[in-house]
User: Which sequence fits this backbone?
């Protein structure tokens, strides 16, 4: 529920059975520390391969692609292709939907119908009973609107995100979304970050501006 120092302190006790590398990635990603998240999820995939665990390998690879998608859409293409290759041999509905959310992050700021795809995906996630994926979906959509500077859509998405996390679960996505939009921080559940909150906000805003520069360079 947002006590990241406690989660980090527990990582050394987890080992392979506790998915220590994947947990570490889940800690670094909300802080916008994508280089560390990428490395952690890649280590999780490698360890899954060493233990001959194809399901865990697919999950770790999809999360690896997600972290890549925030910083390098071209690399994310390659990582997503590998994730789908792994998933083709499995029946993992949740991870397949996570891969589709990852594709939205990869395409954020473009004209590839990100909003329309998110609407369909939101329904699929709800029907599948995977409510834990919805905050991530709304965060991906927030990234898209922030990159495009669509303030009205950004505000509406953040409002939905607040509703989805009102019970305290995944509440840390709200300050992430607000940081992406460079908006004033509102009150909410107390989050214990690894860094001070302005550092995290700056990282997420930097990801938005980096994507804007990337898209201008490809036009």
Assistant:
């Amino acid at each position: 529920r947002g006590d990241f120092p406690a989660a980090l302190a527990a990582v050394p006790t987890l080992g392979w059975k506790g998915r220590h590398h994947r947990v570490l990635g889940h800690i670094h990603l909300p802080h916008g520390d994508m280089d560390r998240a990428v490395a952690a999820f890649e280590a999780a995939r490698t360890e899954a391969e060493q233990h001959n665990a194809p399901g865990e390998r697919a999950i770790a690879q999809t999360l690896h692609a997600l972290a890549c998608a925030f910083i390098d859409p071209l690399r994310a293409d390659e990582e997503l292709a590998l994730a789908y290759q792994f998933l083709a041999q499995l029946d993992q509905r949740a991870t397949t939907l996570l891969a589709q959310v990852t594709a939205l992050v990869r395409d954020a700021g473009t004209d590839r119908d990100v909003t329309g795809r998110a609407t369909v995906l939101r329904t699929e996630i709800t029907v599948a009973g995977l409510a834990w994926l919805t905050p991530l979906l709304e965060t991906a959509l927030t990234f898209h609107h922030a990159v495009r500077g669509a303030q009205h859509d950004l505000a509406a998405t953040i409002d939905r995100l607040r509703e989805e996390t009102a019970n305290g679960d995944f509440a840390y996505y709200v300050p992430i979304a607000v940081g992406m939009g460079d908006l004033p921080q509102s009150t909410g559940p107390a989050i214990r970050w690894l860094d001070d909150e302005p550092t995290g906000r700056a990282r997420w805003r930097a990801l938005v501006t980096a994507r804007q520069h990337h898209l201008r360079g490809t036009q």
Remarks:
- The mean pLDDT is 96.
- The domain at 4-218 is CATH 1.25.40 (Serine Threonine Protein Phosphatase 5, Tetratricopeptide repeat).
